Amino acid sequence: MAEFEPKIVAFVCNWCTYAGADLTGTSRIKYAHNVRMIRLPCTGRIDFMLLLKAFARGADGVIVSGCHPGDCHYTAGNYHARRRWILFRQLLDFLGFDIRRLHFAWVSAAEGAKWAETVNSVVEEVRRLGPFQNYQQLARAGIE
Amino acid sequence: MSRIGVFLCHCGENIAGTVDPGKVVEAANRIPGVVHSVDYKYMCSDPGQNLIREAMRDKRLTGVVVAACSPRMHEPTFRRVCAESGLNPFLCEMANVREHCSWVHEKSELTTAKAIDLVRIMVEKAKRNRPLFPIKVPVTKTALVLGGGIAGIQASLDIANAGYKVLLVERDPSIGGHMAQLSETFPTLDCSQCILTPRMVEVAQHPNITLHTYSELESVDGFIGNFKVKIRKKARGIDEKLCTGCGVCAQKCPLKKIPSEFNAAMGMRTAIYTPFPQAVPNKPVIDKKRCTYYLKGKCKACEKACPAEAIRFDQPDEIIEVETGAIVCTTGFEVLSTEFFPEYGYGKPKDIITGLQFERLASASGPTLGAIRRPSDGKEPETVVFIACAGSRDPAKGIEYCSKICCMYTAKHAMLYKHKVHQGNAYVFYMDIRAGGKMYEEFVRRAIEEDGVKYIRGRVSRVYEQDGKLIVKGADTLLGAQPVEIEADLVVLATAMVANSGAEELAKKIHVSYDSYHFLAEAHPKLRPVETNTAGIFLAGACQAPRDIPETVAQASAAASKVAALFSADELSREPVIAVVHRTAPPIFSICEGCFMCEQACPFQAIEREEIKTRDGKLIKVVAKVNPGVCQGCGTCVALCRAKAIDLQGFTNEQVYAEVMAV
Amino acid sequence: MDQLRKKARELLESGAVKTVIGYGQGSGKAVRAVFIRQPEQTEKLILDERCRQNLAVYLLKPEVKNLGKPAVVARLPVLRSILQLAAESQLADGQMVILGISPDGQLLDFASLKAVADYVSAQSLELPPPEREQLEQIEKKSPAERWNFWQEEFSRCVKCYACRASCPLCYCSRCAVECNQPQWISSASHARGNLEWHLVRAMHLAGRCVNCGDCARACPVGIPLNLLTRKLGEEVFKDFGLRAGTTPELKYALATFRPEDQEDFIR
To answer: Given a cut of 60, is residue B594 above it in pLDDT?
Structure first.
């Protein structure tokens, strides 16, 4: 039986995590295939509705990653994002949504190894959780 | 209709080694909207670029996706190719199939499948890209420099010599700052005023510099290239145009016992006074808080004496409005007073003084004309104890940082004392010696080896008065923490360098961040040390962190060069990746309902309020508006907006949504 | 009640306001909002425990604005809504006369929004035990139980948007659900469309909801959707120390931050 390959969507900020992932590539560090990255200027730009859409499109897990607090290229975007995620996670949990499928990380432009580690560990965690049945059942309701 | 061209690069074997180019090209061709899909060994090379140019022409492409390395590598290259061929550069995107795919996975079907996904995501984005054009903002070529110490003086001269106008604003009656108070400077023992006063005079005489002393910043509005500044010129009480600087008023003033700020309370001044003889401008000012006329309506001795009839008791403060293109903040520092130290008697013993006070004693133009004398009885001290790190590097006192200059000036003070009092005993209690600058270590060695200053590694736990002497209780840690007790005649504390009073208020006025010590924050500690996070506002000198004179001068020149770069063009050209609030048809006019949460969130204060009115001037609604000169394009406002009235050009909601839907 | 009627009458007679928004008898035992424009009609105003509707919602409706300067009968949730709307620049000081009602039915006079804010700050805004109980009952369930509970509740949702219509803080002339370029929230009333709508609405009200409960009362199929906004309101208070509707100055949780905000879930 083919092993379940989770589909992971990652929303990353251009200045830190995207650059960190570039470094992973330049350093030729290998990691799991499963992630597809969406580049945004700052984590502050990441609307929580985008995360919902990713799940609706079949993502089994989502990673959101940006600059460490205090290092944001735009000074405060990641602080605003952090507050948004604190509330969003609590709401999702209250609704019974499996928040183990939603991961957050601070990966700087120098942390190529951390990016690979983050992807690998998220892929493994989500693989153990299996396909996101709850949301995929929802997605089948309705044509989009 | 979209006509997208996809260009896959092999990057030699870097991509082609793990990703199957044929499959990617074929899959790309099947994406709706793609009319051209090819691969080539090296897309960034000339032949590669030509492939793009030809396809743009032959297939009338409306967008280009280059699947290759990271956009952080070659986005400018390919955008330039597009621009040269007549396609707006923002219609060109890159799919990162090297750093994010071929380099991090083994050769397999999964890797090729991922590359295809990445291409598809960028094609969907590119289909929704709109042409964007650089934003032009006009620039007023006048700089405002806040603070007339050595940093402000250096910055002003550099900017003025580059050919631009400067407005130098100083809070005190004279420029010169703390450097004017110093006697000699390390490591050369130059006379401080001798090297400073020529610069001060140059500032006063420079045709490009307008000097406003005894003035403060009232408010700042606007943005880079277009600041609208209000300055409060406090009333000096004299007509500067008539005053000749003769000084008779100060001679006649009956109040002679006011502690002099310039002399750090080591000497006295009158109520109408010029801070020091070399003051620039050399005009007096009336201390309204002490002058008998302002307090009781009597005296007026200065008015009677003034030969030029220049005294104006009723002079009001003046508010001056100016437009400037850049602001340089050089507001400097203060030192902690001796009152801060309970273990040293809360500053009550007169013979415990700060380093700055010692400078005034040592200075030839000081209250003792350069003789080292005890403040209590005027006698020459035979034993002087210098305590380094008084307050600095001390979490218990709330100051964790090192004040940087104290090791050096303590050595200097000890040397100056020994030069003046050959048979005197000088002791320095230190924790470490920080002498990293050019010729600094040699200077400290001189103090120890040539001038016989005794260095004791240890801290002083108490200093108290006893029979007219000061008992200093410390320890010598190099002798195993052996207690050391010295009977001193004078104790000099190298107190911590702290942010100037009013720093927080000033920072708030100019929208610059500051840390818990109220030092102003630079944009990036390594690579952008003289810029702040507010575009157009720069900083230099000790207002940012403790530093010595050579560093301050270097930083001031650096800030000046940034200003000169800003002023070198008549218009500022900015990347158009900025937010924009959309308008729509009547009767709604704008989806924005004017809640202004975006205004509160914006890290750069780039959101303004705009009134939408009917043709007769009746107000319909107040909505948010993004200032294209200030917005940095982070998109925090876009994620925040509930109604989605604001969008980020280059990363619009539609574009990002399409990317997610393409995953 | 008499106090209120008298004051309302005075305001209309003197021309200080053109309309008084209050509660009146509806059909059967129901209470409905009334818009009194003639002084004699102030007898229609009633005030009892049934009068719970958040009348602040009418202050922003163009039809009501066209009637002229209003006075509005305001219990605590309405006072808080007014403050929150003022913080969001939707209402200005002096734009309406606020007929405050204390918890024991007394008429309160407020000269300005600052006076309202002072009064509100003096009230306890902690959740009363029955309301906290309702949240805890759901929090106690396992994630799977919670999911099933909400899916069951949302399955009845027909996307009538009565919840949105009744909430004073849902004043966007184009709601996010109405945006179809891109279609963020599915407007269909299937399981995903319903979940997306309620989730997004709760997030958009985080730190803005004053816990008046009108959304749940307005819902024709009885979904307890006020629990979602109430839960987030409590979280905002717990994590960021902010409560909606306590000051006319904007202090929105998601537009401000502290460097020390908790982050034990971020790698």
So the answer is: yes
Q: Is B161 exposed, middle or buried (0-12, 13-18, 19+ CB in 10 A)?
A: middle
Q: For the segment B86-110, what is each residue's pLDDT rounded down to a tens digit? A: 999 999 999 999 999 999 999 999 9
**Contacts of A among chains (3+ CB pairs under 8 A):** B, C
Does B334-498 match B4-127 at the fold level?
no
CATH 3.50.50.60 fits B334-498, yes or no: yes
Each domain of chain C, given as residue ranges in start order, spans 2-121, 129-242
Give tens-digit pLDDT for B293-314: 999 999 999 999 999 999 999 9
Q: What are phi and psi of B659, to 5 degrees?
A: -65, -45
Q: Determine what percent of chain B is predicted with pLDDT higher than 90.
A: 88
Domain range B579-661, CATH architecture: 2-Layer Sandwich (3.30)
Q: How many H helices and E strands in chain C?
A: 10, 5
> Per-residue pLDDT tens for B595-650?
999 999 998 889 999 999 999 999 999 999 999 888 989 999 999 999 999 999 99
**Residues of B with CB below 8 A from A72's CB?**
634
Residue of A nearest to B661 (CA): A57
Nearest to B388 by CA among B347, B433, B445: B433
pLDDT value at B28 more than 90: yes
Q: What residues of chain B, 554 to 613, have a C-beta less than 8 Å from chain C?
A: 584, 588, 591, 593-598, 600-601
Is the whole-model pTM more than 0.95?
Answer: no
Instruction: Say whether domain A8-134 belongs to CATH 3.40.50.
Output: yes
Q: Which of A3, A60, A80 to mutate to test the interface with B (most CBs of B within 10 A)?
A: A80
Residue A87 or residue A68, greater confidence: A87
Greater pLDDT, B575 or B558 = B558
User: Is C15 at the interface with chain A, CB within 8 A?
Assistant: no
Tokens of B408: 């050096």
Q: Where are the domains of chain B?
A: 4-127, 142-226+319-332+504-567, 248-305, 334-498, 579-661
Contact B103 A26 (CB under 8 A): yes
Say which of A22, A39, A77 has its CB closest to residue B636. A77
Domain B4-127 carries which CATH code?
3.40.50
Q: Do the chains contact at A50 and B656, CB–CB below 8 Å?
A: yes
- Return d(Cα C226, Cα C211) in angstroms, integer: 7
Question: Is the four-CA dihedral B632, B636, B638, B641 of positive or negative sign?
Answer: negative
Which 3-state string (H, E, C) describes B221-244?
EEECCEEEEEEEECCCCECCCCCC
How far B661 CA lies from chain A's nearest CA (Å)?
A: 6
Asked whether the predicted pLDDT for residue A144 surpasses 70, the reply is no
Shortest CA gap C62–chain B (Å): 12
Q: Is A37 on the interface with B (CB under 8 A)?
A: yes
Q: CA separation (Å) from B280 to B276, B286, B485?
A: 9, 16, 46
Tell me: ipTM over 0.90: yes
Q: Between chains, do B635 and A42 touch, taking CB under 8 Å as contact?
A: yes
Place of tokens 């400290």: B444
Nearest to B594 among C89, C176, C181 (CB): C89
Does the pLDDT value for residue B2 go beyond 70?
Answer: yes
The string of pLDDT tens digits covering residues B312-368 is: 999 999 999 999 999 999 999 999 999 999 999 998 999 999 999 999 999 998 999
Q: Which helix (H) or strand (E) holds B483?
A: strand B482-488
Residue of A nearest to B99 (CA): A25
Q: Is residue A94 over pLDDT 60?
A: yes
Contacts with A85 from chain C: Cβ below 8 Å: 265-266
**Which residue, B604, B653, B652, is CA-closest to B631?**
B604
Which distant-in-sequence residues (6+ apart) come within 8 Å of B137 by Cβ? B223, B224, B225, B226, B571, B572, B574, B628, B629
Best CA proximity match to C131, nearest among C207, C42, C212: C212
